[in-house]
Structure formats: structure tokens, C-alpha cells
Amino acid sequence: MPEDINKDVITLLSYPRAIAHIDGDAFFTSCEQARDPSLKGRPVITGKERGIVSCASYQAKACGITRGLRLYEAKKICPQAIILPSDYELYSLYSERMFSIIREFTPSVEEFSIDEAFCDLTGLRRLYRTSYLDITGMIKDKIQKELDITVSAGLSLSRTLAKMCSKYKKPDGLLAVPGYKLHDFLKARPLETVCGFGPNTVALLNKCAVYDVFDYVKRPVSFAEGLLGKIGGELWHELRGECVYKLQEERKEKYLTISKTKTFMPLSDDKDYVKGQLIRNLESACIKLRRHALCARNIICYLKKADFTAKSAEARLTRHTSSTLEFIDICSEVLENVFEKGVLYRATGIILSDIVTEGTDIRTLFDDPVRIERMMNISKAVDHINGLYGKHKIHCGASDIIGKENRDHPRKDVSWRKKNILKGETSRKRINMPLLKLKV
User: Fold this and answer.
1) Does the pLDDT of residue 391 top 50, yes or no?
2) Which domains does the chain have, with CATH numbers?
3) What is the pTM of this model?
């Protein structure tokens, strides 16, 4: 074969590894349409409680609705749009069922996000007596048949390539790129389609005369690593069909950070109300710490303004703890530094970091062991009572304003499922299955 032709060919076996990527199509709105078939074929938007578009159905996207758009702007663009509050319980249930269907075909599954999964199909052709493409199609068809939602699927030699394939023919698409067709596929793909290439990276590559993905993989690996570092080299190998990123099949057990945020409407410049929301974030974050037997030392508090800009400050305790009461004073001090009088705020957030397992922290000479033990006993008692009667039934006085203020805002318009409680259920505890809105 002539030398100039060799430069345009990547020689690989069809599937040295067969990695599939399953990606839900407009997942939140698809779940809403599956729950309520009367919404099918109509422009549906979720995110009513946030004031912005959280997810838009493809019918809404066809009208020009994009994620993050403010709802009043979305209503102007598409007056017939149906705007719903997000029902994350419903989406989680559909997500669990989608992943369980994928695991019926292969045990090697990584839950990448609530609506995305990677799965390793290598070696399963002998078991199913069919091609990897047909196996991927079987997964896709079973999800649609059992859950009444569509997914897009991609199949190739690595995670990066599989994700590019699934994005190629959205929605409801299926694309497979074996090794001997890899060079043809990459020649047609812009750099922006690679997960890991942002706008700045693309601009830098363009300045180096790299204009598509094939231009990138034709260069030596030393070019990729010299320009973009370790990640650049890893993506170079992935895009050439060499599986560098292994599937992370284990469920998440280790937390580097724990964060809790809350968007509230209408916007508020009331310092007491903003503080109440921030303390409620802190309470929720500490509850999660204790649930997983963890402790944290660093805290970041941030406030998001009406124009979506944010201001934050960080503080550090002398030792690790999971007690809300031990964080609350320093949280209040941080608030004093970031709160601006007369400014409207739309959200608050807490990020806890420097997390360790409970009991591994070493106390200093100046710590009061009796006080520390008392704080932990209070936290355990609060968790026990809230477990019996509902989350935040017992809470800090600073966050009490949240429940007492009669504020007319979209968060009061809760999801349909929370309004339709079955016998024996509560507003927080429901049976672990979606309640479909079907006509009999």
C-alpha cells in the first residue's frame, strides 16, 4: 500500500474492545411523557421550581428552547409549552430501571450520570450468537419497550468513541463504528464533538492547524501530550481505538466533597431569609455526612445573585466534625463577608470538603471532649426524630424562617406525584415505583 494512503488509515481489528454508550433522550421530559402519555408529541419543559429550563423535550427544542433559558423567555418563544416542576424521584426510578435493563445483557456497566451508562460487551457475541451492533440494538429496544422512553446508543472501541457515536444521531439513534471504519468516521467529526475538548482547547488546536478529530489523531502522541498534557495523550489513544479509560463499575462510596444548594423564588434581599436558606443547606449537608459516617473540616458558602453571578468564601475548622451546630457559627461569619445589602439573591449553597471517615480525626489539646460528645449526641437525637417524623422537623432556629414565611413562589407547585399520595404514603416516603397517569 502506498505510503500516502497509509497515513489516512488506522489499522485495527473490528472490535478489540466493544464499548457501548447508552444516553437518554431529553431524559427528564421523556420520563414525564412516559408517565403521562397525553404529553407525548408536545413541547414539554421541566424546571418550573427553578425559574429556568432544566430540560426541554425535542418538540420544545425544535421551537428554539435551550437548557438554562429563563422560563419567561421560553414562554415567549413557545407559548404552547407545558412547564412542569421537576420530579427527581420519578427520574431516579426510571434511571434505576434503565440501568437494570442494561445489566440484564452485561454485568460490566458504569452509571455515568442519571441518564447515561457505559457498558462493556466484549466477548458477548458468542453468548447471544449475534453481532455487537445487534446486542446494542437489543438493549436500546428493550429500554424503549419496557420504559416507554427513547435512548440513543453508540458502539465503538473506547468510551470516548462510543460517546461520540451516541451523540451523532440523536434522538433515538444507533451508530456503531468498528476499527476498520474508524478513520472514515473521524474525518467527518469536528473537534467540539469530543468529550474533553472545550472551546479554548478547540481554539488552541485550530491555531496548530488541527481542524477535525482525524487531524488530531494523525499527529504523533508527543504532539498531543506536549500541547494538552496527560489528558491530551489519553484522548489521543482513546480516539485511535485504544481503551485507556476503564469502566468504573463500583458504586460511589468515597466522597471528596458534599454540596447542597437551594434555588428560591421570588428573589430575596432579606438577609434573614437568605441566611435561613444557607443554614438549611448546611443542615442537609451534615445529615448526609452522618448518614455515611463521615466528617468534614472545610466549608464554602456561596450566594447566587439575580444575574446568576456568585460570591463565595471559604473557612476551616480546627478539626473534623459532622455536627451542624459546630459549623453554624463559622457559616454565619462567612455569610457576613459575602452578603451585600440591597442585592437580590436567587440561590444559596454549601460545599463541605476535606472529608474523612468518622473517628479518624485527632483532637487537639484545646478541644473540649465533653462538648464534642454532647454535640454528637444532639445530632444523633435530631436524626432519629427526623427519621420518624420527616426531614427537618427539628431544625436550627435560623432556618425556621423558611417554613414560617408565606411566600408565593413556584416551589409550592410541587410535582404531580407529591400531590397524589397513596394510602400509607407520606409526602417524603412513597413506594419505590412510578405512578403512571393512564386513562382506563
Assistant:
1) yes
2) 258-406 (3.30.1490.100)
3) 0.78
